[in-house]
Design brief:
By secondary structure, the protein is an all-alpha fold. The protein has 14 helices and no strands. The two termini are about 45 Å apart.
Length: about 290
């Protein structure tokens, strides 16, 4: 008895159709605001407030002209804000990731006095909202004379309890103890074991913590708002908030600011998208490495 030839097309089971419809609605829900920003970033003040369709382009699309206005407005302060955000994200992301990797690996692979108590403090820190620590941190940094400096934003960003917890769980479960013992038996010191054996195996978690830390630093708003008073030190989040406050307070005279705010929000997302697509190959590489093991 011969079987009918397969067409090579697999049809999804009907029972998955409601889930697919729900996921489709979720995708649309998250994409519509982004599409709104993309569309309205191409409009001038007339097209933005002219009463047309806010979800479609106006008759004149001028991204280049709007970009020129964005980066030349008020002496090009927006470019300074983007650069500040990049500095905060790079320094805070790399620093927080480094401390999280070292602390997580130490908690997972070493036994020392006070280990459980210290890790309990890390878990307790996960329960405290970051915004609740801004005012005490401001008081402490004011006493040290560090407010209104970049250090006031970078130093608090180095503490990432969730990153420490994530690295602890990954280092405990993803690194076989036998590999570490074999490296030690071959005469490798603890630093060499960590750098050449453990760290490559922790790469997916390291990239995850790095991306989460960098995104958190890039999107940070309340901490730099409280710490900084010089607008030349503002990150892009606080800078756009400053423009929004000016535009809201005097809408009749500053209507063009709304176009710059929308385009500035769109431009501020681009570095995060680039970072995600650049780092995602390390996730794939880590998954492949785990499959081979």
């Amino acid at each position: 008895m011969t079987r009918p030839a397969s067409t090579g097309v697999r049809r999804p089971p009907r029972r998955h159709l409601p889930l697919q419809v729900f996921l489709g609605f979720v995708v649309v829900y998250f994409l519509v605001p982004f599409w709104w920003v993309v569309v309205n970033a191409s409009k001038d003040s007339v097209g933005l407030f002219g009463g047309g369709n806010t979800l479609w382009f106006a008759d004149s699309v001028d991204y280049l002209g709007n970009l020129y206005q964005l980066f030349t407005f008020d002496g090009g302060i927006y470019g300074r804000w983007i650069l500040n955000s990049a500095v905060y994200a790079l320094a805070g992301g790399v620093g927080a990731t480094t401390l999280a990797v070292l602390a997580g690996y130490g908690f997972a692979r070493y036994r020392f006095g006070g280990r459980r108590f210290a890790f309990a403090l890390v878990l307790g820190a996960l329960m405290v909202p970051a915004t609740a620590l801004v005012i005490p941190t401001f008081v402490m940094f004011a006493g040290l004379g560090l407010t209104n400096t970049m250090w006031a934003v970078i130093l608090p960003s180095l503490l990432n309890p969730f990153g420490v917890y994530l690295m602890h769980v990954y280092a405990r479960d993803a690194i076989p103890t036998e590999i570490l013992d074999a490296a030690r038996a071959d005469g490798a010191g603890e630093l060499r074991v960590f750098l050449q054996v453990a760290l490559p195996l922790m790469r997916p978690a390291v990239v995850t913590v790095l991306l989460l830390s960098a995104v958190a630093c890039w999107n940070n708003y309340f901490l730099p708002l409280a710490m900084l008073s010089d607008n030349r030190l503002f990150p892009v989040t606080v800078g756009l908030g400053l423009w929004q406050g000016i535009a809201s307070a005097n809408n009749a005279g500053t209507t063009p600011l709304w176009s710059l705010i929308i385009l500035g929000a769109l431009v501020s997302v681009i570095p995060l998208v680039i970072a995600f697509f650049t780092l995602q190959r390390h996730w794939r590489g880590g998954l492949a490495l785990g499959g081979l093991r």
